[in-house]
Amino acid sequence: MSVEEDDRQLRHECGVFGCIASDPWPTDVDVAQVICLGLLALQHRGQESAGIAMSEGDNHTHFNVKKGMGLVSNIFNDEATKKLKGNLGIGHTRYSTSAGSEEVNCQPFVVHSAHGALAVAHNGELFNAGRLRRMVLARGVGLSTHSDSELITQALCLNPPDIEIDGPDWPARIRHFMELTKLSYSIVIMEKDRIFGVRDPYGNRPLCIGKLMSLTEPNKAEEGWVVSSESCGFLSMGAKYVRDVYPGEIVEFTKEGFHTVSVMGRPHNRPQAFCIFEYVYFARPDSIYEGQMVYSVRLRSGIVLARESFVEADIVSSVPESGTAAAHGFSMKSNIPFAEVLYKNRYVGRTFIQPNARLRRLGVAKKFGAIVENVAGKRIILIDDSIVRGTTMGPIIKLLRDAGAKEVHIRVASPPLKFTCNMGINIPTKAELIANKLTIEQLAKHIGADTLAYLSVEGLKEAVTEKMPNRNAVEVGHCTACLTGEYPEELTF
């Protein structure tokens, strides 16, 4: 992601991952290692903590669990992974939104109910968390954290409306939970010998299914199944993307395979509301959403941006790396050559941890260098994916001018951010968002750009839907709440 991430702190809450080996058990597949690879591929979605819960499939009461603060690679070394034995497991990597950055909030959450152990990992933020929390507490259930994810875990342990005869009916409990709250979640749930993948009825948060292939026998049947927030890690672990989990779908994974338990519809036949900012910012470019590659959507965003906001220049470039695909699209449409103008030093820590604005600015300066031969005397169009607080673009423009840039034109491959999210993305308050303080002309002057232009909301929607396989289906829709203030449902407390 671009340098703007540091000051704007657009943080996704987390990434979830699950894996189950095919029959026979005990398996030869190193399930824990597959989950580690999956979490490493999802590391961009959360870097505060990570955890894995494993089951050997024959014990209702015990899971092998390892959780901790920090990066996946630091928590799960070879020794830790070897201890995580099992035929199935789920994992989680986290940024905090509704709860603090503390070890007690690490996921997956594991509870021991009257019906056995249950592990839950969650991506998103419950729209009506306050009301659901009061309901759970009123049932006499204690909560040890302020995390939405623990709230989900405890809500699942509540008895569903229908009578259970032969033990817990977990699908019924999941459906009951989904009736209580429609937004926003993608969840992986593990009990003794099966995993459930669950996506909210609006499809706001992503979740997809992959087939784990044999690495030694290409024609052999699948060795297992994986479920993940993104498909970007599938190839690296020898898995093949199958499809997205549908909005409102409950998918059950067992050693025999997977099947749909049920699909819950949306109230009043409202359209889907997949987070459009997944395409703009959060997802890795090699992930597949809604039947298309994220990279291709970002490329088309640049094409539309060039059509909407062309300006004469000598080169097109980007703030590495999230603006690069859009910059290539802008270059293709405008016939202005692409050239790198910034070098990113990947060994500098994240600047948002610096304690004050001056140190953050110095952090930006040392994170990038200018490629002077491509800059000196040139009129430059610089593409970035978004601007939030507007405090880090200024130092970048100054760096380019000090390197001899004749003109610097900023083009942003998304519309202005004007509203908070409330569905799992930690966007600053409305008062902190620069688009609510300054006009485009004022912001251009503030950051030192010759001109500044954003992609329009309609232009972004066009880029997202143009190549979507089912683009004309009536239920297709995307959440643009952070751009337009139009939320899928009314926020309740």
TrEMBL record:
Pfam family, one: GATase_6
Catalytic activity field: 5-phospho-beta-D-ribosylamine + L-glutamate + diphosphate = 5-phospho-alpha-D-ribose 1-diphosphate + L-glutamine + H2O
Binding annotation for Mg(2+): 322, 384-385
Cofactor: Mg(2+); [4Fe-4S] cluster
Gene Ontology annotations of biological process type: 'de novo' IMP biosynthetic process; purine nucleobase biosynthetic process
UniProt-annotated binding residues for [4Fe-4S] cluster: 275, 421, 479, 482
Metabolic or biological pathway: Purine metabolism; IMP biosynthesis via de novo pathway; N(1)-(5-phospho-D-ribosyl)glycinamide from 5-phospho-alpha-D-ribose 1-diphosphate: step 1/2
Domain Glutamine amidotransferase type-2: start-end pairs: 14-256
Active site: 14
Keyword terms: 4Fe-4S, Glutamine amidotransferase, Glycosyltransferase, Iron, Iron-sulfur, Magnesium, Metal-binding, Purine biosynthesis, Transferase
CDD domains in UniProt: GPATase_N, PRTases_typeI
Similarity section: In the C-terminal section; belongs to the purine/pyrimidine phosphoribosyltransferase family.
Name of the protein in question: Amidophosphoribosyltransferase
Organism in which the protein naturally occurs: Aphis glycines (Soybean aphid)
